[in-house]
Amino acid sequence: MTMWVWRLSPEVDYYTNAAQMQFDEQFFRQSTHPTLQRIANCDFSATNPGDVRTWLINEIFNQQKLRQGWGGIDLDLNLPEAIWIRNWQLIDPNMAPLANVQLRYRLLIRMLNISIGDTIFLPRVGDNQLSSHHFTVVTAAGSYDFENRSNEDMYWKQDFTHVIPLEGNLTRTFLYSPQTLTAGVFGAPFIAAVVRVPDSAFRGFDGFLLNHNYPFRRY
């Protein structure tokens, strides 16, 4: 069993930009490609600030699903890199540079190494809310799942197809403190979306879990 630090998807504010949503809508609705036409039927309304993160946190606490973005139609992380990148480029209205897409893929595929029983730390996630004073600990109930969300009405909800299922009775929230873990523990190297903890004793993770009777295995 392994430990991970997981950050909520960084691109959620993208969907609050009304001009960007109009641009995306035009991109999809002008296309004759069948995949893009499927997306064109969505509601492209911009969200309010915080709405997407609120939804992501609700998925953790109420649906036992830990989600990342950079998903969508035909973007299962089990696909070979070249095919995944080709599929991403097809549906990307902004034509991100190849190097950026490669980097995102190589970060996301770390999810394929998460196994049942792994411990995952979520910085800045409070009890069913975003919080700069809390972190949450969860346990994986299974391995990576690609969730087909192509039937979602809202455009932004189609993005969060990368899922780790969670053990519902092992979702626990803590205040940052010297008696638990401080916010600084989650600094570098834990900046990317998904990062493996080098070993269970790193920065006192194992001691914290032992002290709070949270089940885990050392490695």
* Overall domain count: 1
Q: Strand count, sense and closure of the main sheet?
A: 5 strands, mixed
How much strand?
A: 15-25%
Counting helices, strands and paired strands, the structural category is: alpha+beta
Distance between the termini: 7 Å
Number of helices: 6
What topology emerges from the helices and strands here?
Layout: E1 3-6, H1 18-29, H2 34-40, H3 51-63, E2 65-68, H4 81-91, H5 98-108, E3 119-126, E4 129-139, E5 145-146, E6 162-165, E7 172-175, E8 194-196, H6 205-211
Parallel strand pairs: 1-3
Antiparallel strand pairs: 1-8, 2-6, 3-4, 4-7, 5-6
What does this structure look like?
The protein has a five-stranded mixed β-sheet with strand order 7-4-3-1-8. It has helices at residues 18-29, 34-40, 51-63, 81-91, 98-108, 205-211, and strands at residues 3-6, 65-68, 119-126, 129-139, 145-146, 162-165, 172-175, 194-196. The chain has one domain. By secondary structure, it is of the alpha+beta class. The termini are close together. It is built from six helices and eight strands.
Give a quick set of tags describing it.
219 residues, alpha+beta, 5-stranded mixed sheet, 3-stranded antiparallel sheet, 6 helices
How do you describe this structure in short?
This protein has 219 residues and is α+β, with helices and mostly antiparallel strands. The chain is 28% helix and 18% strand. A five-stranded mixed beta sheet has the order 7-4-3-1-8.
